[in-house]
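hey
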């Protein structure tokens, strides 16, 4: 993973971690041996406390939309795997909170991919549009709400999605004393990854 960590004016103590589960899985964990990642050990023990032993992680909030078996590649097995994984994590750590969004499935018409031809409305194909909804907005609202309520001295966000940018801007403006950590869930260079750090997010920290 790529880490960008910036402390503001106060010494970080009470900390809340916010994870975009969809982003973390598809950007970093899919097709690896780490699908049963212990998120508390990774973020609390190996990342935050390694930098500041006085850090107290009071909550790890995991944002996702439940897998729907009829649309998942492995059907009911995918749904069961997600349920079992999060159940195991929650049973081990009281600090974990799961916040659910949902999926929508709608028919749509999108431009066909044709070699050396730009996208055109003259070449549309019918497809099913599958979208995860509310994950990003739930994450952003929870971060901002926890900051305003004074529940923490530090917030750490795991996402490479531009939808997080507004909440980083607002925290800097409205709560400049709060330390902000940004974790970009990307594969290491040289592993065939075409993913890149979101510069809009990195520039906010």
């Amino acid at each position: 993973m790529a880490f960008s960590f910036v402390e503001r004016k106060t010494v970080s103590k009470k900390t809340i971690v916010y994870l975009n589960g969809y982003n973390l899985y598809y950007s970093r964990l899919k097709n690896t041996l780490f699908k049963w990642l212990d998120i508390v050990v990774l973020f609390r023990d190996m990342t935050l406390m390694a930098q500041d032993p006085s850090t107290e992680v009071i909550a790890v909030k995991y944002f996702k939309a439940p897998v729907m078996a009829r649309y998942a590649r492995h059907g009911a097995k995918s749904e069961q795997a997600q349920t079992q994984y999060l159940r195991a994590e929650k049973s081990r750590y009281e600090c974990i909170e799961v916040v659910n969004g949902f999926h929508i499935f709608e028919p749509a018409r999108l431009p066909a991919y044709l070699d050396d031809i730009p996208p055109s409305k003259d070449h549309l194909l019918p497809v099913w549009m599958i979208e995860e909804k509310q994950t990003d907005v739930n994450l952003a609202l929870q971060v901002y709400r926890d900051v305003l309520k004074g529940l923490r001295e530090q917030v750490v966000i795991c996402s490479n999605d531009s939808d997080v940018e507004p909440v980083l801007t607002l925290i800097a403006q409205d709560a400049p004393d709060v330390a902000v950590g940004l974790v970009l869930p990307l594969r290491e260079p040289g592993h065939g990854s075409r993913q890149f750090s979101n510069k809009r997010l990195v520039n906010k920290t």
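The first strand starts at residue 2 and ends at 6. The chain has a mean pLDDT of 84.
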